[in-house]
Specification:
The chain is an alpha+beta fold and about 450 residues long. The protein folds into 3 domains: about 160 residues; about 120 residues, Jelly Rolls (Sandwich), CATH 2.60.120; about 130 residues, Sandwich (Jelly Rolls), CATH 2.60.120.10. Strands 1, 2, 3, 4, 5 and 6 form a 6-stranded antiparallel β-sheet that branches. It has a 4-stranded antiparallel β-sheet with strand order 7-14-9-12. Strand 3 and strand 4 form a beta hairpin. The N terminus and C terminus are likely disordered.
């Protein structure tokens, strides 16, 4: 595609890559320099018309300048995003149009048709239109020269029609996390509650320690997740991109946020607040059920990826093993293991916390706290003894349980698992001795859970 009007190509000089051009354009936009930003984004659209992010930013520049054509671009980008497998981008466009007092109800209907629970297009193994490669060369205008008089009109026309003749849509689409599992009525009502959050670089979407009042979908951009210790040191935990969901754990558990989430570059989010969910009234059960199911599946995936218990197995074996576990929701104060009982099996904390204690002179002595990913119950299993400690949920928790017979089969067939459990039991025995104030406990006094 040839460069558009106002684009200068310097012969013999290497053209900048798409990622670099967009970075400069984003910086100009953040500084309020909308005309040069528009010129760069327009150059990206001219060279890479499938870059829906650049087209969206063209609309943002036009809206900021008060120029005509912004609404047409938002609508065109939304339709492209729906068909191309980027429904959250379409929702951002819809919310922006509504904020500009423009009717966008047809976009809601299209989202339901394409991504509702009855859509025949949905498939777990679907594809979505990928953006152009970041290394794509972009002929750029000379920003030192005056902008063309018809810049806004030309940029609006180009961005609105960039994919008008495109027909190579994916044959199947990925479901929207959580939402595509809802009934059509619940899906429509949840869509109506979503709030667009368009955040600049460095903004905190959520802050560690604050109460969880909402959760978020990432429609575009990048965010980093990090935790901060008592000395102010940050530990980076993850990076989030389009399609990610975050913040739901604190909302479900009514606990403070366990980490902060900061925008890298720019990000578009869709927020679902507690008040919005409550407004769904009779549909709230379906929403909560879908949210719990999604959260559980994600936690299980994280557990398989990080826990030494699952490391010796391939992916299929991990899934088969997980099916053997039963899941139990445990209210605060509920005993999970009673001191003195026979070993029943192996437990894994999926969410929440549990307290380990032992009766000492008739009074419980706290030995430690179990958190997400922690395995317990292994000591009594390995030593064939009754448990000499209790485990009680200290807050709302979900615990996975694997029966004794199946654990014994795994230990017999996988030496790595046996060694992991033995090492875990040895470390825990030392911790228990230190917690009880002694380092020479008799075998019969060892705390076995």
């Amino acid at each position: 595609m040839s460069p558009g009007k106002g684009v200068t190509v310097a012969r013999g000089i290497e053209m900048p890559a798409l990622a670099e051009v967009k970075m400069h354009a984003a910086r100009l936009f953040a500084q309020g320099n909308l005309v040069p930003a528009l010129r760069l984004y327009d150059a990206v659209v001219a060279a890479a018309p499938l870059d829906h992010d650049a087209r969206l930013k063209v609309a943002d520049c036009l809206a900021g300048l008060g120029a005509a054509g912004a609404d047409d671009v938002y609508r065109a980008v939304a339709w492209y995003a729906i068909k191309a497998g980027h429904p959250l981008v379409a929702l951002i466009c819809q919310r922006v149009l509504e904020s500009r007092q423009v009717d966008a109800s047809e976009l809601t209907s299209a989202l339901v048709v394409h991504y509702g629970c009855d859509s025949e297009l949905l498939n777990r193994f679907a594809a979505r239109m990928a953006p152009p490669a970041p290394t794509t060369e972009i002929p750029v205008p000379d920003l030192r020269a005056a902008a063309p008089d018809d810049l806004a009109v030309a940029a609006a026309r180009r961005a609105a029609t960039a994919t008008a003749d495109f027909h190579d849509w994916p044959e199947a689409l990925h479901p929207i996390p959580l939402l595509s599992a809802l009934t059509e009525a619940a899906f429509r009502r949840v869509l109506d509650t979503l709030t667009a959050r368009r955040l600049p670089a460095g903004a905190l979407a959520i802050r560690e320690g604050e109460p969880g009042q909402s959760f978020f979908f990432v429609a575009g951009g990048e965010l980093r997740v990090f935790a901060t210790d008592g000395l102010g040191r940050q530990t980076e935990l993850a990076h989030l991109h389009e399609g990610a969901v975050f913040g739901e754990m604190a909302l479900l558990s009514a606990q403070p946020r366990s980490a902060s989430v900061e925008v890298v570059g720019e990000a578009d989010l869709l927020e679902v607040g507690r008040a919005s969910l409550s407004a769904l009234a009779d549909e709230i059960g379906a929403v909560a059920e879908a949210l719990h199911a999604f959260t559980r599946d994600r936690l299980l995936s994280n557990l398989m990826a990080t826990s030494p218990l699952f490391r010796p197995f391939n992916r299929q074996q991990q899934r088969d093993l997980l099916r053997r576990f039963t899941s139990h929701d445990v209210a605060p104060g509920t005993p999970i293991i009673h001191q003195g009982e026979d070993a029943r099996g192996l437990f894994v904390v999926l969410t929440g916390e549990a307290e380990v204690s032992r009766l000492d002179a008739g009074r419980p002595a706290v030995l430690g706290t179990l958190r997400t990913g922690d395995v317990f119950g292994e000591m009594a299993l390995l030593q064939g003894s009754t448990t000499t400690a209790s485990v009680t949920a200290s807050r709302q928790s979900t615990v996975l349980f694997l029966g004794r017979e199946y654990v014994e089969r795994i230990v017999a067939n996988f030496p790595e698992i046996k060694k992991y459990l033995e090492d875990l039991a040895e470390d825990r025995e030392l911790d228990n001795q230190l917690a009880l104030g002694g380092d020479d406990l008799d075998e019969g006094e060892q705390v076995l859970i």
